[in-house]
Specification:
This protein is mainly alpha-helical and about 200 residues long. It has helices at about 1-25, 25-45, 50-75, 80-85, 85-115, 130-135, 140-165, 175-180, 185.
């Protein structure tokens, strides 16, 4: 019974949030509804016994959406004073969203720890799904895992370069000037009289 209630709750929230992603006029609101959709889908994966997929969905997709939200704020020049002014106006919606997330986590956790969820087994043995996935991921597919990390690093550097703006009064590094330094330009020879220090 608990699993059934959790399933219908998560499914309803996932479908409603997915519809609001398309229907919302504000892109920031669409991103928040998308995060809610991902959390609901992760709860459904946990109910099916696929803990690895649930954690992957939360860590990768929710993390990526949070980074996307950050770059949207950086590129659209959102007025933070205006956002803070409307904080009390959106506070009830935030409280409702927080209550929904709490109920989802409560029902999923209760169904999982009571042992009513399905137990998907990748390999035979006493190890869990996460341990088996880790063994395969960091041994047989280690190269592809590291290549994916390198691609994400290049994408992050590209996003930073695209959002980088010239600002006045900011000191920048000139690599060409640093590399082309010579002994004459880098070192200054000073003759100091005997018995006198530099500061005297």
């Amino acid at each position: 019974m608990l699993v059934t209630i959790s399933f219908y709750l998560l499914a309803f929230v996932a479908i409603a949030a997915a519809l609001m992603v398309v229907a919302a006029r504000n892109p920031v609101h669409s991103v928040m509804y998308l995060i809610l959709t991902f959390f609901s889908a992760a709860g459904l994966f946990i109910l099916m016994g696929a803990e690895f997929l649930a954690l992957l969905l939360v860590m990768v997709y929710v993390g990526a959406v949070a980074v996307l939200f950050l770059f949207v704020v950086m590129m659209l020049d959102v007025d933070f004073a205006e956002l803070k002014a409307g904080f009390l106006q959106y506070a009830p919606y935030g409280m409702i969203l927080g209550v929904i997330l709490f109920l989802e986590m409560f029902f999923v956790g209760a169904a999982y720890f009571t042992g009513e969820t399905k137990k998907a087994v990748v390999y035979s043995g006493e190890a869990s799904n996460l341990e088996r996935f880790g063994e395969v991921l960091y041994t047989k597919y280690a190269f592809f895992f590291e290549a994916a990390g390198l691609i994400l690093l290049v994408a992050m550097i590209g996003a930073i370069v695209l959002t980088l703006r010239p600002r006045d009064g900011v000191r920048k590094q000139d690599v060409t000037q640093q590399v082309s330094r010579t002994r004459e330009t880098a070192i200054e020879m000073v003759d100091i009289e005997s018995g006198k220090g530099v500061g005297s």
